[in-house]
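The freezer alarm interrupted the setup, so I double-checked each line after restarting. Inputs confirmed:
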Amino acid sequence: MTTVERADTASSAVGTPVLAVRDLSVSFTTEGGTVSAVDRVSLELAPGEIVGMVGESGCGKSVTAMSIAGLLPDSARISGSVRLEGTELVGTREPVLRRVRGKEIAYIFQEPMTSLNPVLTVGRQIGEVLRVHERMSRRAARARAVELLSLVGIPSAGKRVDNYPHQLSGGMRQRVMIAMAVACGPKVLVADEPTTALDVTVQAGILQVLRDLRDRLGTAILIITHDLGVIADIADRVVVMYAGRVVERAPVTDLFAHPHHRYTAGLLSASPTPGVHAGTQRLQEIPGLVPVLSTQPDACTFADRCPAADATCRESAPPLAAVGAAVTHHLAACWHPCPAPRTESPEATP
Amino acid sequence: MTPQPNALELEDLVMHFGPVRAVDGVSLTIPRGRVTALVGESGSGKSTVGRCVVRLEKPTAGAVRIAGTDVTHLSRRQLRRHRSDVSIVFQDPAGSLDPRMLVGEIVAEPLRLSGRRMSRRDREARIATELGKVGLRAEVARRYPHELSGGQRQRVSIARALISGPKLLIADEPTSALDVSVQASVLNLLADLQRDIGFACLFITHDLSAVEYLADDIAVMYLGQLVEKGSREQIFTRPAHPYTQALLAAAPVADPIRQRQRQPVLLGDDLPSALDPPSGCRFRTRCPLAFDRCAAEVPAQVAVGGGMAACHLVQPDGTRPDVRAAGTSEVLS
Ligand SMILES: Nc1ncnc2c1ncn2[C@@H]1O[C@H](COP(=O)(O)OP(=O)(O)OP(=O)(O)O)[C@@H](O)[C@H]1O
Ligand SMILES: Nc1ncnc2c1ncn2[C@@H]1O[C@H](COP(=O)(O)OP(=O)(O)OP(=O)(O)O)[C@@H](O)[C@H]1O
Ligand code: SF4
Ligand SMILES: [Mg+2]
Ligand SMILES: [Mg+2]
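Predicted 3D structure, all chains:
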């Protein structure tokens, strides 16, 4: 087989995806009117693949993640498709979704305090998952809970199992969340900022736990983070979101070496590099504010902040299309993608 | 003339929750208008220190002095009356914003509590300005906290903390929920405001790279105690304590090729617990350089380069250990 298969613009995952999100859109009804949070997002996860998702705060990463297994509140309107091994999940009834969640698709959230039940000990909460999905006895579930807590590096797990969430530090709560998520060996793990509250020496351990899980069980992982160092460390591929849309999608080395979207380029140069900013230099910002998505359906959402924007950019939304060499499966949604390596940040181009 | 009092002084601060020794003898001084970063592992007691300062917790022992006044024995309400110029940004924005209040009301709450009268128009304009400073649009004022993203909520709590023009700001992980470009703008914003208003700041974080730009001094905490203190320059260029060195070495770099080639400095996974801290040096269960003495003796605080470090391998003459020289095989064990 010598032919190089060209990826069509919508799919660039290697192998058959375990999870396929296609044209997912989400909007909310609020007092201030309708807020569009996610706009035609497509992404795929192959078994055992770790996909990193980055993007500005509020760009729709968490909403995308939550809509995968129907976790959004009733005020959300969802369209598009989410398939788990071919089975459509959008529009599926809640009892079915509840079985999928926890067993097939597990979540780790950004703010563990709000997703842990404050009145139950962590042991009971992990045990609950095992009792429901694995039909374990109360005793077996407790023993397994202790095992899982030490697996994620919680010291004195045998004692901590009887703690309530408020008795744990932020980082330990995050570990409890991970223990709960991996309890049933899920096919897909959605990790929304799993290491945000942890120091780097502990983060390194948690990323190792996630990698192990992928290696041992072939779990596909969607990891959302704003730490490009984490992405650089663990992700196979990266999805960059901006204002509700996917603006770039590429294998990790390729994305860092040649960002084609100027938002990605700006993000890469805003990342603090130890030793560079000591006292004097300002951190690089991307000027301007994230637009309200609903105000510009027919434009590139980055146009207001983009140094390369022209009339076309303000009149029509660029599709996510192949850029660079086809074999790299590098996609960007930009009418004027940057051709050169990453030194061409928005600030560097006049 | 007497010198101006320090913005914050902690003297041997101790906070135990039953058997949990969350903070175990922390002494720290922040001069007026200076920024001290408190860095350290999850669970090391950083937030507890911050909560003691604003009297959300009553310290078990030790003293807290704000601008020269001993506030250790004031209630939270008394503290608020005496010191309306102390603000805190909480680590978990979801838990600290009242879900029934609109964002605009939340941001303006400190003004209301201080009893300042303002016309509705002035107040709305003020809210819009404060939201703008943290990079949020004015429309956000009419939303509820649950209708915002995590990072947007964090910015709301920063706006709330800054609206009253504090002299001392306790910022508990104010940027850890933010993406890098917003993080950059919040750090720049804090630096600008800090320069303009001149508030002193205790900046709590686990991310050393986030404070390099902002902090004048850095204090590194491990399991309830400070293991190293020093100027930013000192900590970044000549870290003395093995834990500080590991923190600097473990921060991932945003470059997949370099990052994957780096020798990981993975510390032992034997995380000690504040329920039962190790004897001697509390870092010894994870320290790749630990030797007999570390289990037997509590290391003294040794003065190095204008700061201090608490490790048996640090000498007053400037001799320092090197974690990376320990080799990974041993470190990984
Ligand atoms: N329940 C809701 N009702 C109304 N709007 C919402 C709701 N949840 C989220 N939003 C809005 O949807 C957009 C996307 O939010 P989301 O939480 O996905 O952001 P994010 O990319 O995860 O950001 P962060 O990095 O800060 O966590 C935001 O503008 C947010 O204000
Ligand atoms: N109300 C409480 N009751 C019992 N233990 C507590 C309480 N609050 C905190 N602790 C414990 O005190 C220790 C220090 O917690 P703290 O939240 O101060 O750590 P931290 O350094 O801020 O960690 P993180 O980076 O995870 O936020 C932890 O062991 C925690 O479990
Ligand atoms: S005193 Fe011993 S265990 Fe503690 S940091 Fe120094 S070498 Fe490591
Ligand atoms: Mg989020
Ligand atoms: Mg904390």
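Quick read of the result. The longest strand of chain B covers residues 20-30.
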